[in-house]
Amino acid sequence: MKPTVALLLTAFACPVALHGQNQPPSTPDATIKQMVENISAKNLEADVRGMVSFGTRHTLSDTKSKKRGIGAARNWVEGEFRKYSKASGGRLKVSQDTFTVKPDGRRIDKPVLMANVMATLPGTDPTDTRVFVVSGHLDSRVTDVMNATADAPGANDDASGVALVMEMARLMSQKQYPCTLIFVAVQGEEQGLYGSTHLAKRARKEGWNLVAMLNNDISGNSKGHDPDISDPTHLRVFSEGVPATETADEAKVRRQLSSENDSPSRQLARYARTICQQYVADFEVVLEYRPDRFLRGGDHTPFNQQGFTAVRFTEMNEDFRHQHQDLRTEKGVVYGDLPEFVDYQYLRKNAGVNLATMASLALAPASPENVGVLTAELTNRTQLKWDAPKVGERPAGYFVLMRETSSPLWQQKFFVTGTTADLPHSKDNFLFGVVSVDAEGHESLPVLPKPVR
Fold first, then answer.
1. Domain carrying residue 394
2. What would the pLDDT profile of 207-221 be if each residue is shown by its tens digit?
3. What is the pLDDT of residues 62-74, one digit of tens each?
4. Is 33 contained in some domain?
5. Nearest to residue 109, comparing CAs of 157, 73, 148?
6. Which of 363, 391, 413 is the last residue of a domain?
7. What pTM was computed for the model?
8. What is the pLDDT of residues 348-358, one digit of tens each?
């Protein structure tokens, strides 16, 4: 009987793993675990209802009133961020990043002053330039996307995402991280992704070392309709395959490796799935190998278009009776995006996935650089080499990840302390990735090796 590939993987795992006698622990970080457990469904509901209380948060709505419209909602979120800042000893920096959008002939019919509400937690290591962003969009709408006066609660779309970001800021600002974390409620998503486009272009213009962007949109409903489904245990993450900014040289390497399923955003999605398994019980991240849903868009897209790694988290089964709907009741069915249709325990778990993912990445060393697979000789082995990251702390070591070319998920990992690896597995039969790891077991995003001679 011939051995299966799975048996070969198991058989070869031990000799390679022995290269690293001081392998970091694989158990979850106790501090991250405690933060995840401290996420409050009660707080999430209060924040959602707080945003709903402003009647409408349409981008073209009132900006002067203290009780109604997008202006009042922006100021309220800023005020909540400032409470967290005070509790953090002032380390959390809060601002409204304003910008003007001219009429576009589509969904902007007059000049509009917009603002992204931002809470920035600067890193403690001046040599660590990495930035991580988590977002939700503050604006809401009803059936007519240009109706700026009707009540538009936007409880799930997307007060749920903003509440998730707020709860993350509340908890994470109590801790310290070597790199910079940005918690942001963007404006103008429903009118054309204006807030996220402004922020992504700003990040590119200012040269941010933006490692990952987590977008949360429509994240709080566990019940789908048509067909009727109740599923409080799954969360979708959408990620682009071929990067939007891929160059001709990069396309050549991708075709050579057939690595359409290994873009940086796909690696981030896989990372979130693994982190979910470690920190959020009885819950699963479902990998969606598409940039977004049909006929829809999200705030991660402008970041992808600027060449950044970004993904979208959204509920597993949507109920379109409670999205983009005028408030009404027809034949006993209630339409509208109301807070009573949000499952706050489900939203709490979604927040846990985001928090654990962001914290794990922030505490990990930066990813290795110049990762390559040697292809100068015909051999049934795989020789890898890379450089240590140039920013932040030096890793305690590296994990080499491996999977069959037909597998969507990493299957094996081998620890090494140097910047080379020689594996008894054919580079023709497997895909590889290399991650940096610190002494506590925090891992960076994987980097796929490029062929080098």
1. 5-28+367-452
2. 999 999 999 999 999
3. 999 999 999 999 9
4. no
5. 148
6. 363
7. 0.94
8. 999 999 999 99
